[in-house]
Amino acid sequence: MKAWTRKTLLGIFAASLLVGSLSACSSASHHHGPKSAERMAEMREKMVGRITGKLDLDGAQQLKLQALADALQAQRSAFMGAQTADPRVQIQALVSGETFDSAAAQTLIDDKMRAVQSHSPAVVAAMAEFYNSLRPAQQQQVRDFMQRRPGWFQRG
């Protein structure tokens, strides 16, 4: 791949990541402040319960779903970072001065990319372990849910 093509693709990816971070910060959670650990645990249990009920999971499958939820939570925690409880503060800091803080923006993007890269293998492995443990009919249910409702795993 030519150097300019790679740089262009990396630039587009970085800009997309920044826009995604901004839109995530402006989602419904800002009306109620950042989600507490208790609220996140409650949402996670609700998600696991709904998936368990919809797919009629057995005990072994439930354990694999819990492992997937653990991996997703670890990746989310790493992505959000330990520097601040409110990610909007990081974004707001970029535009707090008279000029956009490009160096801080690049550092933020680099940190987010490292977090995703370092935790993604565990998420992929947990998803594969869970999905492969499903019976064919359950796998078809997952595919059907995803076709009908793209946000099934988020708000299912």
What would you say this structure looks like, in words?
This protein has 156 residues and is mainly α. The chain has helices spanning 3-25, 29-32, 37-55, 59-80, 87-94, 102-133, 136-148, 152-155. Helices cover 80% and strands 0% of the residues. The longest helix is centred in the C-terminal third of the chain and has 32 residues, at 102-133. The model is unreliable at 25-31 (pLDDT under 50).
Unreliable segments of 5+ consecutive residues:
25-31
The structure class reads: mainly alpha
Please provide the ordered H/E string of secondary-structure elements.
Answer: HHHHHHHH
Largest sheet: none
Count of helices? Answer: 8
What value does the Rg take, in angstroms?
A: 18 Å
List the helices and strands and how they pair.
Layout: H1 3-25, H2 29-32, H3 37-55, H4 59-80, H5 87-94, H6 102-133, H7 136-148, H8 152-155
Helix pairs in contact: 4-6
Summarize the structure.
With 156 residues, this protein is mainly α. 80% of the residues lie in helices and 0% in strands. The chain has helices spanning 3-25, 29-32, 37-55, 59-80, 87-94, 102-133, 136-148, 152-155.
Question: Which features would summarize this protein structure in a list?
Answer:
156 residues, mainly alpha
